[in-house]
Structure formats: C-alpha cells, structure tokens
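Annex B. Sample input.
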Amino acid sequence: MEECTIYYEDAKPRCKALAEKLAEDEKITIRKASDFQKQTFIYENNSNVGFIFENSGKKNYPSLKNVIPSIVMNKSNYIFIVSTGGIRELESLVAVNADLEKRGYHADNVYSKNIFEKHHMNQNQIISKITDDMEAKETNYSAFRKRVDTISKKDLRKILKHGYQAYR
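Annex B, continued. Sample output.
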C-alpha cells in the first residue's frame, strides 16, 4: 500500500477513534483538521488522501470547510470520504464531493455510517474495507454515479424505495 494522509475532525469522538484505528497502519498518517484552520495553502504529496468527518446539525462538515478549499494535490490521487454519522449524512457527503469537484478532484470511494450499519460491519471490518479498497485503488463511487445517471428517474425511485424497504 502507498502512503496515505487522512484529515479528520478531531472534535468528534467517532471520527477521532476511526482515524486513530486507521493510523495503526504505518503507512497512514492522520492530521487534525483543526490544525489547518488558518492555513491558506496545504500541499499533499501522498498518493492516497482521506477525509473523515461527522455532520453536525445544519453545518456540513464544519472543520473540513477550510481544509478542502486550501489543499493542493495531484489530480490522480485516490480520494476517499468517510462520514461517521450526523443528521444530514448523505447531504454532507454530496457537499464534500461537490467541493472537491470544484477544485478538479474526484472522490473514488464514499463511506457512510448508514452503509456500514446496513451491512452490519464492526469497526475492524470497516477499517479492513477502507484499506483494502485503498490498496486495490477500487473506485466504486464513479461507477455508481455513471449507473445512476443512465437510468430514468422513475426506475431510480423504484430502486431507492426497494432499498429503503429492505433496510427497515
């Protein structure tokens, strides 16, 4: 596995716990997002970059708001986003991805607490899933977006409805 840097929200205990667990791997370094609040330029030379946050109320990913606009990295980097919960989890994941796309980057994988709960994954399984995808450079998010963009809205509603019913 190549070197990886993870920016995480240090004010939230779930984010901190997940980041520290991921940092047990020697090739992963973690950085607190609050350390970069006043920096206008963050250069990232590692080929894998991750963002871990938790949505809090009406504010989407508050501590990463200053990190994403000021980060400079290679456009071909493997980028993953992890949301550890919150009120508007999916909305915040879309907002983070939109901010990355404004800068010319694209998210390769997006993970959320709801998805982990749906698949009944514990923390060790979550960490192995993230690291395995990072090693394989698996890009599930772009394939999913292409699939969603090609189907009609009626079919998409049916798929989402069946998924919601199966989740309950």
